[in-house]
UniProtKB/TrEMBL annotation:
Residues that hold substrate according to the record: T53, C54, N55, R56, S113, E118, A119, Q120, Q124
EC number: 1.2.1.70
Binding annotation for NADP(+): G193, A194, G195, A196, M197, G198
Family per record: Belongs to the glutamyl-tRNA reductase family.
Enzyme class: oxidoreductase
Lineage: Bacteria, Bacillati, Actinomycetota, Actinomycetes, Micromonosporales
Family matches, as Gene3D superfamilies: Glutamyl-tRNA reductase, N-terminal domain (3.30.460.30), NAD(P)-binding Rossmann-like Domain (3.40.50.720)
Protein name: Glutamyl-tRNA reductase
Its job: Catalyzes the NADPH-dependent reduction of glutamyl-tRNA(Glu) to glutamate 1-semialdehyde (GSA).
Assembly notes: Homodimer.
Tetrapyrrole biosynthesis glutamyl-tRNA reductase dimerisation domain sequence ranges: 323-420
Length: 437
C-alpha cells in the first residue's frame, strides 16, 4: 500500500449491531454531503465514501495513519450515535489495507449481505460512490477501489448462480411473512416509498401474485412514475389512512427519520375494515413501523431485525465460487496498486535520463559547431536509443518486483541510488480510473 494513504473500512452491520444502534447511524440522502464533509475534515482522513443501507453503515476511507484515521472515523460515528466511543467500539468492524479491499469486493458481490447474493447492494454501493464523487471526497484510492468493487460484484453475479433464486431482502421478508400468514397471491398490497427498495418491492409483490397493487410516496410524481412501470395505482400520501383499510399486505421502505406507521393509524384502519389479517414488512432504516404496531391483534410485522435472526448463513457451492473470484480479484488489485506506487519513480528516472541526454547534446553542439543538422539528428537518435535500452530492463524489472509483497522497497532503492525527487501528490483520479488490473 502507498505510504502516503492507506485504505481503511470502519462500520457496523446486522452481524455486529442491533437495529436500534443502526437506526441512530443511518443516513438519508439529504444528510450525506454534511457527513462526508465532516469525515474528510478530520486530521487523518484524505478521502471518504459512506455506505448506508437497511442493514449496514460503513465508511471507506483513505487515511494517512491507521490509529489516527480509526480514531477520527470512530469518533464521528460515536458522535452521530450519541454514545461514547468505548460503548461503540465493540460493535465496530475494522478492515485495513488488503482486508479493506477484500471487504469492499465481498460487499459488492453480496457475500456479506443479510441475504447472501442479493443484487441491490450493487446499486446502493454505486449511489454511495456517486455521492462521494459529487462532494469531491473520493480521490485516487477510493475511485479505483469502488470502480473495481462494482466490477467484481457484477462479475460474481455473472459467473456464478449466487442470485439464482432472485434473492433479495424483499423476497426473503415476504417468504418469512407468508410463513406466518396466508399467501399474498390475490391479496391487495401497498408499497410505501418510491425509491429503489420500493421499486423492488412492487416487482416482488407482482411476481408473488399480489393484486391490486398500490404505491404511495410523499412525492406523488415519483409514485406515479413507479406505478406506471409496475402496473400499480399511485395514491396520494395524504390518503394513507384510507388506503390501509383496503390492503392486506404493506411494504414500507422510506427514508423517513420518524415512523410512518404508528399504532393509532394501523388500529384505526383495522377497526373500520373489520376482522382481518395485515402483513407489514418494514424494510426501512430507521424503521418505518412503530414498535407498538406489532402488539396489535391481527398484525404480523417483519422487520430487518427479525429477518436477520431467521436467515441461514450456511455457505454453498455458489458462495464458495464467489469467494474464489473475490480472492483472485483482490490479488489483482494489489498488483495494480503496487505498480501504481512505483510508476512515479520510473517516470522520474526516465525524466532524469532525458535531462542528462539533452544537457550532453547541447554541450556537443557547442564543441562541434561544424556538425550538420543531419549529423546532430543522428547522434541524438543514437544516444536516446542507448539510454532507453539501458533503462528498459531495470524499469520492467522494478515494476515486476514492486508487484510482490514488500515491493515498495525496490522503488525506494531507485530513488536513493539516483537521488530522484518524486512528487508525493497522488495521480489524478481520472487517470487512476483508466487503469484496471
Amino acid at each position: 500500500m502507498s505510504k502516503n494513504a492507506n485504505l481503511l473500512v470502519v462500520g457496523l452491520s446486522h452481524r455486529t449491531a442491533g437495529v436500534a444502534l443502526l437506526e441512530k447511524l443511518a443516513l438519508n440522502p439529504g444528510e450525506m454531503s454534511g457527513v462526508l464533509g465532516e469525515i474528510v475534515g478530520q486530521q487523518y482522513v484524505d478521502e471518504a465514501v459512506v455506505l448506508s443501507t437497511c442493514n449496514r453503515v460503513e465508511i471507506y476511507a483513505a487515511v494517512t495513519a491507521f490509529h489516527g484515521g480509526l480514531a477520527d472515523i470512530g469518533g464521528a460515528l460515536a458522535a452521530r450515535a450519541g454514545i461514547a466511543m468505548h460503548e461503540l467500539a465493540p460493535r465496530l468492524y475494522v478492515h485495513y489495507e488488503v482486508d479493506a479491499v477484500r471487504h469492499a469486493f465481498r460487499v459488492a458481490a453480496g457475500l456479506d449481505s443479510m441475504v447472501v447474493g442479493e443484487a441491490q447492494i450493487l446499486g446502493q454501493l454505486r449511489d454511495a460512490y456517486g455521492a462521494a464523487g459529487e462532494q469531491g471526497t473520493a480521490g485516487r484510492l477510493l475511485h479505483e477501489l469502488l470502480q473495481q468493487a462494482l466490477r467484481v460484484g457484477k462479475r460474481v453475479h455473472a459467473e456464478t448462480e449466487i442470485d439464482r433464486a432472485g434473492q433479495s431482502v424483499v423476497s426473503a421478508a415476504l417468504a418469512y411473512g407468508q410463513g406466518a400468514t396466508a399467501p399474498v397471491e390475490g391479496r391487495p398490497a401497498l408499497v410505501i416509498g418510491a425509491g429503489a427498495m420500493g421499486a423492488l418491492s412492487l416487482a416482488t409483490l407482482r411476481r408473488a401474485g399480489a393484486s391490486p397493487l398500490y404505491v404511495t410516496n410523499r412525492s406523488h410524481a415519483r409514485a406515479e412514475r413507479l406505478a406506471e412501470l409496475h402496473g400499480a395505482e399511485a395514491v396520494p400520501f395524504a390518503e394513507l389512512p384510507t388506503l390501509l383499510e383496503r390492503v392486506d399486505v404493506v411494504v414500507s421502505a422510506t427514508a423517513s427519520p420518524e415512523p410512518v406507521l404508528d399504532a393509532p393509524l394501523v388500529s384505526g384502519a383495522l377497526g373500520t375494515a373489520g376482522e382481518r389479517d395485515l402483513l407489514v414488512l418494514d424494510l426501512a432504516m430507521p424503521r418505518d413501523v412503530a414498535p407498538a404496531v406489532r402488539d396489535l391483534a391481527g398484525v404480523t410485522v417483519v422487520d430487518i431485525e427479525l429477518l436477520s435472526e431467521s436467515l441461514s448463513t450456511t455457505a454453498d457451492a455458489e458462495e464458495r465460487a464467489g469467494e474464489e473470484i473475490v480472492a483472485a480479484e483482490v490479488e489483482a488489485f494489489l498488483t495494480w496498486l503496487r505498480g501504481a506506487d512505483v510508476a512515479p519513480t520510473v517516470a522520474a528516472l526516465r525524466a532524469r535520463a532525458d535531462e542528462v541526454v539533452e544537457t550532453e547534446l547541447r554541450r556537443l553542439a557547442q564543441r562541434c559547431p561544424e556538425l550538420s543538422d543531419e549529423a546532430r539528428a543522428e547522434v541524438s537518435h543514437s544516444i536516446h536509443r542507448i539510454v532507453q535500452r539501458l533503462l528498459h530492463q531495470p524499469t520492467v524489472r522494478v515494476r515486476q518486483l514492486a508487484a510482490a509483497p514488500g515491493g515498495e522497497a525496490y522503488a525506494q532503492a531507485l530513488r536513493e541510488l539516483f537521488d530522484l525527487q518524486v512528487p508525493t501528490s497522488e495521480i489524478n483520479p481520472s487517470e487512476a480510473s483508466e487503469v484496471h488490473p
